[in-house]
Amino acid sequence: MIKINLLPHSRRYRVSQTEKQLVLALALLLILGILCTGMIVWTGTHVSSLEDRVTQKEDQRHELLQKVGHINRIKEQMEQMQSNIQAIREIRSIQHLPVRYIEALVRSLPEQRVWFESLDLDGNGMLEIRGVVMDNQVFAQYVDELRRSPYVHSVNTRRTSRRQVQDLDLVEFDFRVQAGEPIPDKLTLKTEDDQ
């Protein structure tokens, strides 16, 4: 038997092309929105971690600058100490010189013929000497002997004059001696003369 259905066919709902495009566009927008949100969240966390690193590096930099400042202060103190040590060495190297100057005066002194009345020594090695001598020849020999000393740089006679002392006719003198560190040429001459 044959059945005939007189009822109208149920029609299938047809989706139009525009509806498909609209759904596809909405799906793409939704995916794009999710991707953008993900990128924003990822970028935010990345920026936050970079800011934390910058803060950490700034803290490290500050600590290192403090250490560098401390090291520079220590270097300055060490340079000051080296300068002080050098000054002490220089002072020690010349502290014996005044004794040598006076020794040069005394070694050259003829016995019982020259008498000092005053002797002044300043910080620059300038000796001012006043006294009396038996005669001009003894004074001239004494000055020549002084000039041979390695510690004597120059001898300048300022004045000589006759003077009566206890019925003796003596020569009064006043001269300056510029003394200093030994002159090497005079040192070799002095050692050759001693031999």
Please tell me about this protein's structure.
The protein is of the alpha+beta class and about 200 residues long. It folds into two domains: about 15-95; about 95-195, 2-Layer Sandwich (Gyrase A, domain 2). The chain contains four helices and four strands. It has a four-stranded antiparallel β-sheet with strand order 1-2-4-3. β1 and β2 (about 125-135) form a beta hairpin. The radius of gyration is 54 Å and the shape is rod-shaped. The termini are far apart. The mean pLDDT is about 85.
Query: CATH architecture of the largest domain, please?
Result: 2-Layer Sandwich
* CATH class label of the largest domain: Alpha Beta
The fourth-level CATH homologous superfamily of the largest domain is General secretion pathway protein M, EpsM
Q: What best-fitting shape do the alpha-carbon axes yield? A: rod-shaped
Structural class, please?
Answer: alpha+beta
Brief digest:
This protein is α+β, with helices and mostly antiparallel strands. The protein has helices spanning 17-94, 97-107, 136-148, 184-194, and strands at 114-121, 126-133, 152-165, 168-179.
List the keywords.
single chain; 195 residues; alpha+beta; Gyrase A, domain 2; 58% helix; 22% strand
